[in-house]
Amino acid sequence: MATIFAIETSCDETAAAIVKNRQVCSNVVASQIKIHEQYGGVVPEVASRSHLEMLNQVIAQCLSEANLSWSEIDGIAATCAPGLVGALLVGLTAAKSLAIVHQKPFLGVHHLEGHIYASYLIEPDLQPPFLCLLVSGGHTSLIYVKDCGVYETVGKTRDDAAGEAFDKVARLLQLGYPGGPLMDKLAALGNPQAYPLPEGRISLPGGGYHPYDSSFSGLKTAVLQLVQKLKKQDINAGGEGVLAASTINDIAASFQETVAKGLTKRAIDCALNFGLSTIVVGGGVAANSGLRKHLQAAAVKNNLRVLFPPLKYCTDNAAMIGCAAAEHLQRGHTSPLTLGANSRMPVSDVMELYNLNVDG
To answer: How many CB atoms lie within 10 A of CB 221?
Structure first.
């Protein structure tokens, strides 16, 4: 397979990697968490400027760690969609420039396809068809993976993504940013049965509920109302309206349990109904211990295989982008240098990014 130099700058990680034969030669990630935590979330303009400041250093470190020269690189890739447009443009422009200077093929890669390919880095023999549960700060989807570049979204969130819901609930509990890892840590100390919370379901016009779509806005509102109620009870009891640490742990555990069980049920049902024996999980929420526990247990019970990437490949990284690009280049797919950044491109439109020179 091709050796790909890849860049990922879709949000708040500046990343570069070199991938060969689904093996990672180097993978460098410069996180912007410390920059954005003072704002409680990602500020797009700040993210773009930070990418500009960090990218050259990240690229140099990536090449040094791989101990490879540009003559040994077969293609250069960058995330082009979806994401923050300004942030995407930084990596996209850098990759195009490198492709021109070193006379290499250029490939624009869809960020969600990268998350699908993260599991290929640990299972090089993985082949479609399979189901991908993609859960991150911006996306919560069930994707039927039919082939390289051929994807059907069969389930999605109708409002907040799972990771976004974790961040918002963490903010309600005054835990800081990013919320997902903090909630996971506190959930391990709490009682997941302490507070019954509603699982978000999508009603169908003819009755019943959508089998695969999710909703997290109602769950988030239920936590808000619970926090307000508990604070009021504390004030009525003579307190200052401050939640005890044990109460916060129980809320985190109950919230995480509700999200994990809902995602697990939909993923298992979807895989069984589509006759798929493997579920691949990708995105930042794939690192969540509650989701891993529930989905692995349910998969064993239903004779399914479930694959979680290592934690370093759950969050945004360039290795997954390089892995996806390698297979596209192997099939003769390249992107025009006129390719632009797209903030909202659906994963089903992946093949629009490529000139189909061989397959198609």
So the answer is: 12
**What six digits make up the tokens of 335?**
């992107």
Over range 262-281, report the average pLDDT.
Answer: 97
What DSSP string runs through 284-312?
GGGG-HHHHHHHHHHHHHTT-EEE---HH
Reading the block at residue 8, the tokens are 């990922």
| 24 φ, ψ (degrees, to nearest 5) | -85, 115
Full-prediction pTM beyond 0.85?
A: yes
- The residues with which 142 forms a beta bridge, in sequence order, are 133, 155
The confidence band for 255, taking pLDDT boundaries of 50, 70 and 90, is: very high
Strand order in the sheet with 140-147: 150-156, 140-147, 130-135, 278-282, 305-307
Per-residue CA distances from 6 to 27, 46, 213 (Å): 9, 22, 32
For 55, 130, 184, 191, the CA distances from 243, given in Å and listed in that order, are 42, 44, 18, 15
C-alpha angle with apex 355: 351 to 357, nearest 5 degrees?
A: 115
Residue where the block lists tokens 């390719």: 339
Beta strands at 305-307 and 278-282: parallel, antiparallel or unpaired: parallel
Name every residue whose Cβ is closer than 8 Å to that of residue 37 and which is 6 or more positions away in sequence: 176, 177, 178
Instruction: Name the band, by pLDDT with cuts 50, 70 and 90, for residue 38.
Output: confident
pLDDT, the chain, mean = 94
Question: How far is it, in rounded angstroms, from Cα 90 to Cα 57?
Answer: 14
Q: Phi, psi at residue 267, to the nearest 5°?
A: -65, -45
Q: Is 103 buried (19+), middle (13-18) or exposed (0-12) by CB count in 10 A? A: exposed
How many helices (H) and strands (E) would you count in the chain? 11, 12
Q: Give strand pairing partners of 81.
A: 110
pLDDT bucket at 109, cuts 50 / 70 / 90: very high
Q: Which neighbouring-strand residues pair with 108?
A: 78
Task: Return the ∠ at Cα 142 (arms to 341 and 351), rounded to 5°.
Answer: 40
Residue 49 burial by CB count (10 A; 0-12/13-18/19+): exposed, middle or buried? middle
User: In whole angstroms, what is the distance from residue 292 CA to residue 20 CA?
Assistant: 28
pLDDT band at 211 (very low <50, low <70, confident <90, very high): very high
